[in-house]
Specification:
It contains eight helices and no strands. With about 170 residues, it is an all-alpha fold. It starts with a helix and ends with a helix.
Amino acid sequence: MEVYKSGGIEGFEQLYSRLYEPLYCFLFRYTREEQLSIDIVQDAFERLQYIKQDFDQQKGTVKAFLFQIAYRLMINKLNRRKKWRTLFPFLVPTESRRLSTDEKLTIQEAILQLPEKQRAVILLVYYHDLPQEEIAQILSIPLGTVKSRLHNAIKTLKEELKEDFDA
């Protein structure tokens, strides 16, 4: 970790090659979703890059530190999904019901019909799973504006999709 903390690429490569697989396995066993697990592993290593100077060997191992980062990222992503399931329960595929291609196209078309500013927020929240604070940064708008655009977009989508999905 010292080589890595000092900025050495070889330190990062060693860390990555040693911890990628165990971290991925942990996440996959928890989520049962390959792509989500891969994404979280990448996000965890990226986050580690930003906070590597905060690591204190007196408090634990690098492995434990990275697993803690990944676990928190995973919980945040899963919690955001729960929020979407609450907002749009009729759009969430279940074991017994998967969205058809036509239904997916209907949803995409409804999103495309949103005003541009609302569409940007919905896409960043729903498809890219970004927190509202980051969306505010990306779009260079206040957090309150993100919240109002999201609220209005959700309201519009519920109305537009109500008939198609018997919501």
